[in-house]
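Anyone up for a design puzzle?
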């Protein structure tokens, strides 16, 4: 398994690690290291991009995935030289992109907080898409008079931004998580992302430290289809 260092620190942009494998699969060439700061695409959040470098080689990372064995696959291409197994290398991510991704992801969770504080508890968060282009959260349940809710939700979420709510994370065992109705990978511990004062949410993404770091949010559109309400948002 690759150690997922990004879970502990959203803002860590470089890290030394060791090459443990290199392989080719349907997605192309992949480098595997013992620990990583690269976020693998998943949970509605895009992967990080950046570089892996040794003294004589440079590899450009263009997409990242986590496989079923818990290994992080860094897909990309060599720009110069090649690595050898066991070699010490340095990882560096594009921190500006990472922070945008973290702000967009945290905004999606803050939308859940806004929805629950507006007495819309019949809307249950089901799926989030937190890419910078066109992010949204889907809720199971129908929001009646949807267009009347755009302004109240927007006002509420921006109030929560201004309240500077602390965002933290902690782990729960699979059983503890199940008791609290929090999602966890089958048989594994849950990582809970917690906005102070609101229900925690099972999530493996990267988040900013507090709601004010997200900045102003606009609610773009609310769509209701087949019992699902989709609320699209954007950062300003
Ligand atoms: Zn999340």
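Challenge accepted. My sequence:
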């Amino acid at each position: 398994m690759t150690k997922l260092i990004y879970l502990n620190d959203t803002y860590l942009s470089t890290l030394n690690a060791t090459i443990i494998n290199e392989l080719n699969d349907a997605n192309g060439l992949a480098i595997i290291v013992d620990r990583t700061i690269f976020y693998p695409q998943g949970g509605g959040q895009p992967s990080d991009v950046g570089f892996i470098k040794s003294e004589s080689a440079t590899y450009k990372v263009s997409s990242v995935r986590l496989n079923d064995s818990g290994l992080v696959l860094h897909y990309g291409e060599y720009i110069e030289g090649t690595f050898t197994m066991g070699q010490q290398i340095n990882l560096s991510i594009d921190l500006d992109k990472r922070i945008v991704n973290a702000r967009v992801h945290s905004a999606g969770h803050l939308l859940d907080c806004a929805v629950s504080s507006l007495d819309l508890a019949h809307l249950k968060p089901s799926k989030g898409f937190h890419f910078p282009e066109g992010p949204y959260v889907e809720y199971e349940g129908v929001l009646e008079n949807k267009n009347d809710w755009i302004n109240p939700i927007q006002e509420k979420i921006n109030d929560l931004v201004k309240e500077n709510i602390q965002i933290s994370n902690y782990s729960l065992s699979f059983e503890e998580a199940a008791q609290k109705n929090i999602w966890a990978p089958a048989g594994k511990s849950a990582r809970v992302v917690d906005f102070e004062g609101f229900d925690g949410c099972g999530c493996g993404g990267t988040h900013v430290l507090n709601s004010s770091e997200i900045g102003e949010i606009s609610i773009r559109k609310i769509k209701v289809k087949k019992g699902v309400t989709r609320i699209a948002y954007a950062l300003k």
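A detail worth pointing out: Helices lie at 95-117, 150-162, 174-179.
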